[in-house]
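Quick review question:
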């Protein structure tokens, strides 16, 4: 690693302006680099936007624009914030080219944050070889919240973090050196992120104190950095805080003393952080405290906090990851996949207006393949947002390459068919389908303090793609990958083309050599990396595959199984209920089938398992073969780190192939039709 790694593309990611490839078209931006014009009373976000244009122009064109409030009488860029949007509305911007005696490129936006997003869109156009005329556009995002959730602990560790230690905390303290946090805020703002939760939803006792006077001034400093880039700060809080921090005998949400405690706490926070976003809460899940402790429901628990935050415009984001983590594997009637729906669907319409339910994209836990949660579309009177996992807990841990935007895109486009009408999930979470006041998307961060932010350099595409998908859900997975690659390696360069190809194949590659057809959970317990087919099969976590000598899969049908399918609308349930119509990529999530079951291509289920694991391993090796010719065309540190991780991925894929295939050969005694090596 070079000594000046902070100046290299590993650290600067898609904002490595000096590496942008100029074309005949993009050179036409150069005359506009003499001045950037902003109002004299511009706020901090607008000034960040102006400084970003000045920085980029200097690095791309060698001309650092002057800053002025007046018409300079020559070509320039003008930044103008229109009146701020009302609470709950999305964001938008417009880029227009105006001719005349003093030609200008105008970026106007809904509030200063809209302008900032527009400036980054303008820079994307430059980096991708567009002309000023082609850069003209008008965009709007209906997603009010475009959020990153950190699982950072106060000691500096990161739960399910695969890219280094926390950017915010170390040894029980909030970090004083905030230079890197500023760089991080720029990265997030550049893709449209406008909210960030700093600490782990599993609020360990030390982190619970972040809402106390000891820590709030330091938190306020970090919040101020994010605020200058149009990003509101949230904190994860323990539901039991009144008892844990306030000395009260209870945290009962209907207790008047508890209500007063939270109201005073909200007042204290907003005095220091005026644009504080609100609280993120995990309650009654995996041993976290919650309203069930006091015989109350989740609406009563969430509304307690919402009442305290409402006078300040704050939001409560209440996670729906609530399930019994002490299941008996012998009891086939209980199904972890059903539990979020069972806990929350009956409460529809009982939450306060400033409560948003944060629902995982799938019903279990971020597997490489799951159906979309039936809660989307089931709750018509409650604001919802979709939770995605950018950090690759079950998808290779930023060792194995796995581009996740296709997974999120599928979830957003899934049609829940509420009341027999088209109901894509994206229209539920942006509030348009049911007219709910709030919504958006949240992604669990894949970032740490390592040199390249995300561990695997190509995993930067997941962070980039998540932000862009939050802003523009209609964006295709391929378009997001192309944008990232063009900005990282140079527009339409051989390296960019290769990276796009590798990214778009990577999810299928990973899925083939891990768990087949939606069954999931073949991972090693605890660490969740590498194969252990029975690792969770007899555990309390409710993550079973039910393999025996005759077949595999979980029967979740209404006719003979757990009746999970009944949580969907009738037309969707009918598709999943029948193995002949169920999408094959989800076949074993919904059905227990014999190994002799014939797939639509004629192969038996068992032969598919053998084939997919051999194919996935071979495809992992091809990823490395594709990368090798880029030596000398890509930054040396970037190239070397990708190559190192591709080698590790090949080892992992071989382990998966041999462990899984041997497991099923031993279960069945049926050999591979193609007579490939399977260890007896």
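Suggested answer, residue by residue:
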């Amino acid at each position: 690693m070079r000594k000046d790694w902070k100046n290299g593309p590993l650290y600067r990611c898609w904002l490595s302006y000096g590496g942008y490839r100029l074309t005949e078209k993009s050179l036409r931006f150069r005359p506009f680099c003499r001045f950037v014009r902003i109002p004299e009373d511009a706020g901090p976000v607008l000034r960040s936007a102006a400084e970003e244009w000045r920085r980029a122009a200097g690095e791309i064109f060698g001309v650092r624009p002057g800053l002025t409030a007046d018409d300079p009488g020559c070509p320039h860029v003008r930044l103008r914030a229109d009146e701020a949007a009302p609470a709950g509305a999305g964001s938008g911007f417009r880029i227009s080219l105006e001719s005349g005696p003093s030609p200008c490129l105008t970026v106007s936006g809904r509030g200063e944050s809209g302008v900032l997003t527009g400036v980054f869109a303008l820079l994307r156009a430059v980096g991708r070889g567009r002309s000023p005329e082609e850069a003209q556009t008008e965009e709007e995002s209906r997603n009010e919240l475009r959020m990153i959730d950190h699982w950072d602990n106060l000691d500096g560790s990161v739960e399910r973090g695969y890219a280094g230690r926390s950017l915010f905390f170390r040894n029980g303290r909030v970090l004083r050196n905030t230079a890197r946090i500023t760089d991080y805020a720029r990265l997030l703002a550049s893709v449209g992120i406008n909210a960030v939760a700093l600490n782990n939803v599993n609020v360990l006792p030390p982190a619970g104190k972040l809402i106390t006077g000891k820590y709030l001034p330091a938190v306020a400093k970090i919040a101020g950095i994010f605020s200058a880039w149009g990003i509101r700060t949230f904190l994860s809080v323990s539901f039991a805080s009144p008892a844990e921090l306030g000395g009260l005998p209870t945290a009962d949400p209907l207790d008047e003393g508890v209500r007063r405690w939270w109201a005073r706490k909200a007042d204290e926070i907003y005095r220091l952080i005026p644009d504080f976003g609100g609280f993120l809460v995990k309650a009654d899940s995996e041993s976290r405290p919650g309203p069930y402790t006091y015989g109350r429901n989740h609406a009563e628990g969430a509304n307690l906090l919402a009442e305290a935050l409402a006078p300040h415009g704050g939001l409560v984001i209440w996670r729906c990851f609530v399930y019994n983590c002490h299941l008996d594997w012998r009891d086939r009637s209980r199904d972890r996949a059903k539990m979020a729906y069972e806990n929350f669907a009956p409460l529809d319409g009982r939450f306060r207006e400033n409560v948003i339910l944060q629902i995982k994209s799938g019903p279990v836990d971020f597997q490489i393949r799951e159906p979309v949660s039936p809660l989307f579309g089931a709750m018509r009177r409650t604001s919802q947002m979709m939770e995605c996992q950018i950090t690759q807990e079950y998808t290779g841990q930023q060792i194995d390459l796995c581009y996740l935007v296709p997974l999120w895109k599928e979830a957003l486009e899934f049609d829940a068919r509420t009341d027999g009408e088209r109901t894509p999930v994206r229209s539920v979470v942006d509030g348009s389908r049911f007219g709910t006041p709030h919504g958006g998307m949240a992604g669990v961060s894949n970032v740490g303090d390592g040199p390249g932010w995300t561990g695997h350099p190509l995993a930067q595409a997941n962070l980039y793609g998540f932000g862009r998908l939050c802003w523009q859900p209609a964006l295709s997975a391929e378009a997001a990958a192309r944008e990232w690659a063009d900005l990282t390696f140079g527009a339409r360069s051989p390296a960019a083309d290769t990276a796009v190809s590798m990214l778009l194949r990577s999810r299928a590659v990973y899925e083939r050599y891990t768990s087949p057809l939606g069954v999931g959970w073949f991972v090693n317990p605890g660490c969740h990396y590498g194969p252990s087919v029975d690792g969770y099969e007899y555990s309390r976590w409710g993550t079973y595959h039910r393999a025996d000598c005759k077949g595999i899969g979980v029967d979740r049908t209404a006719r003979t199984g757990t009746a999970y399918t009944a949580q969907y609308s009738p037309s969707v349930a009918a598709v999943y209920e029948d193995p002949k119509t169920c999408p094959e990529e989800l076949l074993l999530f919904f059905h227990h089938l014999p190994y002799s079951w014939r797939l639509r291509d004629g192969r038996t289920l068992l032969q598919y398992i053998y084939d997919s694991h051999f194919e996935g391993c071979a495809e992992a090796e091809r990823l490395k073969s594709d990368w090798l010719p880029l030596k000398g065309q890509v930054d040396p540190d970037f190239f070397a780190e990708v190559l190192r991780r591709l080698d590790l991925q090949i080892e992992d894929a071989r382990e998966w192939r041999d462990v899984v295939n041997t497991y099923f050969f031993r279960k069945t005694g049926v050999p591979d039709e193609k007579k490939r090596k399977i260890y007896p």
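Why it works: The mean pLDDT is 96. The chain is about 35% helix and 10% strand.
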